[in-house]
Amino acid sequence: MATEQSFVDYVAEVVGLGSRLTHKKMFGEYALYLDGKVVAFACDNSLYIKPSKAVVALAHDLPQGPPYPGAKDYPIADELLDDPEALRRLIEDTAALMPLPKPKKPKA
User: Fold this and answer.
1) What is residue 12's three-state secondary structure?
2) Count of CB atoms situated within 10 Å of the CB of 84
3) What is the 3-state secondary structure (H, E, C) of 61-94?
4) Is 49 helix (H, G, I), strand (E, B) or coil?
5) Beta-carbon contacts of residue 23 (< 8 Å; ≥ 6 apart)
6) What's the half-sphere exposure (Cβ side, CA atoms, 13 Å) at 91?
7) pLDDT of res. 1
8) What is the arithmetic mean of pLDDT over 28-45?
9) What's the whole-number average pLDDT of the chain?
10) 101/83 Cα distance (integer angstroms)
11) Residue 49: exposure state from Cβ atoms within 10 A (0-12, 13-18, ≥19)
């Protein structure tokens, strides 16, 4: 089941980071970016956070599951949608630990 745009809009509203949190549609699902860094995925209308030390420190008890067939397990943060401050901190701390994307090579 593909993720609905309304779910991604809801996540963005709950997190409350304005234009800092963006998303791109990919194969019917979404990648969520904070300040240009991938921090989460929205798949099957669930929120999967990139595994990191931030998850271990702030939300170690989140359930785990693959966001798509063949993927490794990611923390599923659906329950944090009811706790905007905790979700915002988790996303911000995750972004702080993620590398910047590699620059794209110019087309020849």
Assistant:
1) helix
2) 13
3) CCCEECCCCCCCCEEECHHHHHCHHHHHHHHHHH
4) strand
5) 8, 12, 30, 31, 32, 33, 42
6) 34
7) 67
8) 94
9) 92
10) 29
11) buried
